[in-house]
């Protein structure tokens, strides 16, 4: 009986020891694997963060760098001429916008001041008010008042004639903007046609139709058209604003001229 208990005890101790040893080995093996998994996960997260940052940087610089790259790929010939059209058109447009904004006058206030001066101090007082006010409307008022001494008909003719002069000043150089609007896409189309001709020359020289052989020439040809259209769109926006501004000032000039003629007519009856 004692031997039986001894054998069972020894067997139990050996079995328990083997289980503990296996658990220890498993723990030792699992720990590095766990650390490796953690390290792999951390590396993937870092790579994802770096990729995200690179994508953000690319999104921030894609448009400007892409435009510069495409412009350079288009070639200096037609691209340079299209760029000159854009620069000259913008220069004229900005000059016209500044001039038109300075030419804008509060016509209601000017009419009220001229009428008050005319009724209180006569034609000379009204001329002084018009002289001290800037803008084409004030210049027309001054010319009409200055010719009033020759009669109402003479003053009215002077207002109409000087109104035409002022309208010509407002529309000065605007035709050049419309020229650049038409010229830029034409140059782009011309570059496209020339690029296509060069591409077909390459096909003829090679004796075979390979996409890689003509892709570069066709891409350059299309880039000239794209930039020509972009220039035309930009200048067209400025042109429409300028023409709308000119129409507004001309309408104010016409309304103010009618009011001045009415004031002089009423003044002559006194």
TrEMBL record:
<keyword id="KW-0812">Transmembrane</keyword>
<keyword id="KW-0653">Protein transport</keyword>
<feature type="transmembrane region" description="Helical">
    <location>
        <begin position="217"/>
        <end position="239"/>
    </location>
</feature>
<comment type="similarity">
    <text>Belongs to the exbB/tolQ family.</text>
</comment>
<keyword id="KW-1003">Cell membrane</keyword>
<keyword id="KW-0472">Membrane</keyword>
<dbReference type="InterPro" id="IPR050790">
    <property type="entry name" value="ExbB/TolQ_transport"/>
</dbReference>
<feature type="transmembrane region" description="Helical">
    <location>
        <begin position="176"/>
        <end position="197"/>
    </location>
</feature>
<protein>
    <submittedName>
        <fullName>Biopolymer transport protein ExbB</fullName>
    </submittedName>
</protein>
<feature type="domain" description="MotA/TolQ/ExbB proton channel">
    <location>
        <begin position="136"/>
        <end position="254"/>
    </location>
</feature>
<keyword id="KW-0732">Signal</keyword>
<keyword id="KW-1133">Transmembrane helix</keyword>
<feature type="transmembrane region" description="Helical">
    <location>
        <begin position="77"/>
        <end position="99"/>
    </location>
</feature>
<dbReference type="GO" id="GO:0017038">
    <property type="term" value="P:protein import"/>
</dbReference>
<dbReference type="InterPro" id="IPR002898">
    <property type="entry name" value="MotA_ExbB_proton_chnl"/>
</dbReference>
<dbReference type="Pfam" id="PF01618">
    <property type="entry name" value="MotA_ExbB"/>
</dbReference>
<dbReference type="GO" id="GO:0005886">
    <property type="term" value="C:plasma membrane"/>
</dbReference>
<keyword id="KW-0813">Transport</keyword>
<feature type="signal peptide">
    <location>
        <begin position="1"/>
        <end position="21"/>
    </location>
</feature>
């Amino acid at each position: 009986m004692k031997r039986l208990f001894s054998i069972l005890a020894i067997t139990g101790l050996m079995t328990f020891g083997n289980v503990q040893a296996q658990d220890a080995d498993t723990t030792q093996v699992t720990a590095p694997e766990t650390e490796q998994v953690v390290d792999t996960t951390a590396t993937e997260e870092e790579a994802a963060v770096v990729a995200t940052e690179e994508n953000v940087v690319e999104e921030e610089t894609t448009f400007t760098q892409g435009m510069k790259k495409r412009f350079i790929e288009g070639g200096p010939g037609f691209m340079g001429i299209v760029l000159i059209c854009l620069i000259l058109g913008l220069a004229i447009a900005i000059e016209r916008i500044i001039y038109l904004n300075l030419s804008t006058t509060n016509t209601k206030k000017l009419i009220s001041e001229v009428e008050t001066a005319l009724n209180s101090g006569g034609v000379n007082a009204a001329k002084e008010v018009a002289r001290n006010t800037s803008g084409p409307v004030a210049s027309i008022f001054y010319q009409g008042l200055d010719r009033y001494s020759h009669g109402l008909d003479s003053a009215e003719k002077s207002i109409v004639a000087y109104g035409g002069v002022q309208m010509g000043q407002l529309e000065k150089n605007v035709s050049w903007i419309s020229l650049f609007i038409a010229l830029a896409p034409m140059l782009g189309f011309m570059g496209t046609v020339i690029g296509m001709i060069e591409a077909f020359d390459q096909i003829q020289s090679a004796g075979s139709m390979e996409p890689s052989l003509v892709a570069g020439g066709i891409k350059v040809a299309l880039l000239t058209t794209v930039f020509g259209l972009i220039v035309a769109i930009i200048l067209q926006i400025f042109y429409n604003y300028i023409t709308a501004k000119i129409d507004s000032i001309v309408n104010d000039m016409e309304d103010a001229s009618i009011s001045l003629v009415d004031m002089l007519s009423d003044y002559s009856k006194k």
